[in-house]
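Troubleshooting: if your tokenizer reports a length mismatch, compare against these two reference records.
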Amino acid sequence: MVFEAYDESLRRQVALKVISAHLADDPDLRARFTREAQAQASLDSAHVVHVYAHGDAEGRLYIATQLVPDGDSA
């Protein structure tokens, strides 16, 4: 799921992609999710949102990215 969230340390709105805790127990999914974050972070394009952070918070995997207001309204 993707949520709009506020990153208190960076003081800005972010898009927060979160994987459920029960899915995060799968080592293959964890590795794939990490590769997704790394691949997205390696891209430098005006057409790709920037990755600010990724990791595990209380068993939930997340990727925090640049928020594009109304970015998926098509």
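Reference record two:
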Amino acid sequence: MFGGSIEDAAKNFSRSIQLFEKEDEADLLKPHWGYLESLAWMGITQEKLENFDAAKFAYQKALKVEPEYAWVKYSLLPKLLEKIGK
């Protein structure tokens, strides 16, 4: 819709996730707004690239951090599993 590519989006989300995780190591008490959303959008991006294992990994990683993250738990992951037949 706004230009750009899915491949570029995947690279940018990957970098964002790396930065969040590096920050986590430095200060566990800091809030990390946007980390879960980065993981969710990485999953969406990987789905669009048909990298279903990578999408599943991103969604599961988000749920490991926050098991009740509703967007992933009740929407994104179940739809992916249905799509890939698991």
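Descriptive notes for reference record two:
- The mean pLDDT is 88.
- The helical segments are 6-26, 35-48, 52-65, 70-84.
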